[in-house]
Amino acid sequence: MQGKVRIIKVNRIAYKYPEIVEIIKKKGFDVWRDFKHHDIPRSAAGFVKADVEGLVMTTVHTLGGAKMMEYVAKVAEGSDLEVLAVTILTSHDQASLNRELGIPGTIKQSVVRLALMAERAGLGIVCSAKEATILRKILKPTTLIVTPGIKPLWAVEEKDQARVTTPYQAIMNGSDYIVVGSAIYKSENPAVAADKIVAEIKKALLDRKKKALIIQDETEMFMSQEDIRKIFSEAKAVILDDHFVYKSTKHGSAYVNKDRIFFDPVTISSLGFEIACRFINDEVDVVIGPVVGGAILSQWTAYHLSALLGKKVFAVFADKDGDDFIIKRGYDKFLPNSNVLVVEDIVTTGGSAIKVIKQVLSCGGKIAGLGILCNRGNVSFDVPKFLSLLTIDLKAWDEKECPLCAKGVPVNVELGKGKQFLARQ
């Protein structure tokens, strides 16, 4: 197995037979003692101190907290020991995370938040390869990503892990090391199994270089447009083939009903998280949105940015002031010299977002970017960074040019500005 496997990971056997570490080292392998330390900071640091001599890797649980990870990083500082922080175990699926552990949000949200906390402490990351893609985009290039839950297509099926991938996919997703267990030791010929895995790794490394050359859109690393479209569709938030009057007074045949999104805090939290991830490297201090939807979105986006960055990011909103917006309630005091992320729910002409941006600048704030849920007018903005989670390129017409009016199609009075339009007739 020499030349195919570099590090042997031991856990349960090392409890019963501590001498196994030296036996493995004499065979020419490095050793990772995977005890997943999880204790108060001083005790965890004591455990890791015992791992410094003779090991190349050890693990702690991120759920031990930032202080615990800082303690263990300090103990290992200057040594050859790589301390890895376990995020969410690969045995957990979405249901067990939420219902059994009581941790809200998605697995991806928890993994990203915990991984960033571990990176700030100076530790490497253990995560499923399914989360490695987004972590490789967000974390520093030097932060180690190690992925268990590796199951080659030809391996014997194991049922104790829920989030598994093949060796090829794990490397393509950005893993630095993969942890392979039963696929090798349960194989009839472990050496042949190891050869197959090494071949997958080599192919993935070559393909990853090719892929890096052609990736242009960073959103590929996050939730895709199709994922967002599915969320809107399942919430019945996109309505087609009707006659609507928009806030801009233009007419169209489709309507994005944001209220179908905002009543579900889990959904809007997930969308706020997606926006937060895209602006994680833009030093955001304050998030602001126009009332009402933008205000709700600003709260969730700032909440996730605070958790991801390990600092307080403030959430404020702009009030309506006739046809304009105004920043009051003392919120203007948060803006001078701050990097401000403007968020908005649905954009047709972009008028509301542009007015809020002007207000931020008049208060001495600096625009970090603009993030919106849905760009239904295919509008562009002159901002340092612009993100639309969903783009729906649908036509809108002035009233005089509206083909629906010409055909006598009734205006929808339940959604949009249909009632106001008919009242003016």
Q: How does this model look, in words?
A:
By secondary structure, the protein is an alpha/beta fold. It has two domains: 7-214, TIM Barrel (Alpha-Beta Barrel); 221-424, Rossmann fold (3-Layer(aba) Sandwich). Helices cover 40% and strands 19% of the residues. It has 17 helices and 18 strands. It has helices at residues 12-16, 20-26, 41-51, 66-76, 94-100, 107-121, 129-138, 167-172, 182-185, 190-214, 225-234, 259-262, 265-278, 293-309, 351-362, 403-407, 418-424; strands at residues 7-10, 30-37, 57-61, 82-86, 124-126, 145-147, 177-178, 238-239, 244-245, 251-252, 255-256, 286-290, 314-321, 324-326, 339-347, 366-375, 386-391, 396-397. It has a seven-stranded parallel β-sheet. It has a six-stranded mixed β-sheet with strand order 14-13-12-15-16-17, sandwiched between helices. Strands 9-10-18 form a three-stranded antiparallel β-sheet, with no helix packed on it. Helix 8 (167-172) links the parallel strand 6 and strand 7. Helix 3 (41-51) packs parallel to helix 4, helix 6 (107-121) packs across helix 7 (129-138) and helix 13 (265-278) crosses helix 14 (293-309). Residues 214-220 have low confidence and may be disordered.
